[in-house]
Amino acid sequence: MTDNKTKPPNLDLINMVQQARMMHDREALPSTMNAIYWIESKPLTSTSTATSRAGEWLIETTLSEVDNLWVKIRHATETGRLGYKSKVSTSPAKGQAHTSARLIVVRTYDADDTADVARIETALREIGVTKLRYERIAES
After folding, report:
1. Measured distance CA(43)–CA(139) in Å, rounded
2. What does the pLDDT look like over 111-127, one tens digit per residue?
3. I need a labelling partner for 87 at 20 to 30 A (CA). Which of 12, 25, 39, 79 fits?
4. Sequence-separated (6 or more) residues with CB below 8 Å from residue 116
5. In whole angstroms, what is the distance from residue 115 CA to residue 3 CA?
6. What is the dihedral of CA 92, 65, 124, 140, to 10 degrees?
7. Is 115 exposed, middle or buried (CB count within 10 Å of its CB: 0-12, 13-18, 19+)?
8. Cα dist from 103 to 2, 12, 90, 112, 128, whole Å
9. How far is Cα of residue 54 from the mean position of the Cα atoms in its chain?
10. Is 0.85 surpassed by the pTM of this model?
11. Strand, coil or helix: 64
């Protein structure tokens, strides 16, 4: 007789896979990747998690500029200067028509925390980002 109940997910295995992915992404440059769509970065010592009201800073860039900008954003994310996660597209993102277009996304914990959203904007501008826009992440 078999048990038709769904087994709970193996959280240890999921965590191991996520850690391996983050180790890979730590060294990856978006201009050299084509097997994955996004490269991600997270703070190395953060315990904060996103709320259901999370938001994101969207930074459009180009293939010729993406690596230099991503290295700066990845470092700022890892050291806790930005939000709970940043990611960069390795090919044009949805809505980007030009083949050299790339998108960097910097996620914030809570779009209603205007002080934190402003803090992250300031950090991005200090890195050299001049064009960016902010959006709430659609709740599912």
Report:
1. 23
2. 999 999 999 999 999 99
3. 12
4. 83, 108, 109, 110
5. 50
6. 10
7. exposed
8. 47, 31, 8, 23, 15
9. 12
10. no
11. helix
Instruction: Dump strand ranges (E) for 9-115.
Output: 38-41, 55-62, 85-89, 101-108
CATH architecture group of domain 54-140: 2-Layer Sandwich (3.30)
Provide the CB-side half-sphere exposure for 50 (13 A, CA): 21
**Tokens linked to 32:** 């050299």
pLDDT per position as a tens digit, 40-79? 999 988 667 788 999 999 999 999 999 999 999 999 999 9
- Which residues fall within 8 angstroms of residue 82, CB to CB, at 6 or more apart? 43, 73, 76, 106, 120, 123, 124
